[in-house]
Amino acid sequence: MLIHEPIVTWTTLYHSFVFGLLFLLLEAYPYIYASLYGMSREATAMVFLSPWAGNLLGVLVYFVCLKPQFRARRHQVLSQSAGKRHMSPEERGLPGILAASVLTPLGMFGLALTARADLPRALPGVLSGVPVGMGMTLVHLSLLNYYIDLYPARSASVVAANCAVRNAAAAVFPSVAVPLYAALGIRRASAVLAGVSCVGFPAAMVLLAYGKQLRARSRWALQDGVPGVGETSATPLLGQCVAVARGYGGTTARTS
Length: 256
Description:
This protein is mainly alpha-helical. It has helices at 6-37, 49-81, 89-114, 122-150, 155-184, 186-197, 200-216, 236-239, and strands spanning 244-248, 251-255.
């Protein structure tokens, strides 16, 4: 799924970058604050509250703003079509991804502009940690819902592939933080990371505009107007009789 589905490939790469970016900041903050203000690593502990606050705000925005709008829109669609048409995966998952693709670059550009010794110490951490934390949470919740709607029969495989890649990014990014900021400088390194994170917005716009056409080229994605394609029963083993071959230690038994 990760190799043969372009939607999964590119969304996973962006999700992994945003996810790893939050972990990168956990190593970048001590270096930045030591360079600008001469603070020790222990003294920078309070800065880590800003990404946590961003995570919390992202959860609130998703469940208070985005999810009620989705439910209202779905109710409107079902009422108008008498239950014959459902909302597309793009309508449900992409608004949160669009919001995250705006918040994450803003946070990193904010760090690049405010990383100055003559400004208050809390400013760089708050202006970067809160938006990046919100962006990570919004892209995480929205993208997982997008996968579940997009690949009803193989959502577990897609989520597992995404989880493996972003966990690898989270393991590598902290090791890159200090060398990157030492080589490029605080402002340039933050600006480079902000520029890379800007890729998410046009990618989400492409999915929003051409998501249906991309799904039509997929073997496993949900198809509009084609019953049974990309869909499976919610209870395949209870609702229908299916012959399943099971092997145990060289023996084979068939059950239904």
